[in-house]
Amino acid sequence: MPLPGNITIIGEEQGQIEGSCDTDGREGTIQVLRFDHSVEIPTSADGITAGRRVHRPFTISKETDKSTPMLFQALCTGELLSEVILDWYRIDGTGEQELYYTIKLYNALISKVRPWVPDILDQSKSAYRHMEDVSFTYEKIIWTWEPDGIEYEDAWGEMV
């Protein structure tokens, strides 16, 4: 089972949007329970590239917490987020958690906040709390494999 991620969001107006995480070393971040993102290149029916790459919104799911009103403020005012940093952890060979993968967004905007509550009558969803999905668009992204420092960056507006 994967471990939750932690996201740090730095706004140009609000500064760090503080979350409710109280895990040692991750205090004040926002715990990420689900994540979805894709980058695609359109292709023709015969598999030939037919356009420029398309970065889809970067979407997280999180519990409703003290960051929620600040995320809505950033959405409604169009606040530029200078950095959005998502850290992923795993259990290493010694049984300790280690940071192994990081995704950084630069000059991001929140494009959608969607609060949701699972079907409370469905017992299989009893562990869920009040949730929300937060989607970001961005100017630049950097993916980093932390153990070896391998990274790649892409700015969607630049030609490759």
Automatic annotation (TrEMBL):
InterPro entries: Hcp1-lik_sf, T6SS_Hcp, T6SS_Hcp1_domain. It holds the Pfam family T6SS_HCP. This is Secreted protein Hcp. It comes from hydrothermal vent metagenome.
